[in-house]
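Possible regression after last week's pipeline update?

I re-ran a chain I had predicted before the update to compare outputs. Posting the input and the new output here so someone can diff against the archived version. Not blocking, just want to make sure nothing changed silently.
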Amino acid sequence: MGRCFDYTALTLVIIGAVNWGLIGFFKLDLVNLLFGNMTWISRIIYALVGLAGLYLLSLYGRVREMGRE
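New output (post-update):
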């Protein structure tokens, strides 16, 4: 279960990173383009990406623990 959640969070963060890259390089907000400017679904997507990023902060501690094994 944990590994599946890790991959889901990682996928969401990659989607967020690609979106930020598109904004930076081309001024193109893909979430805004697909779902509208701050509609309820775009807000959910942004919130999920943010939560996934916060969750992946725990990866630092887990990687450090794996190095000790």
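Follow-up from reviewer: compared with the archived run. The chain has a mean pLDDT of 91. Marking as no regression found.
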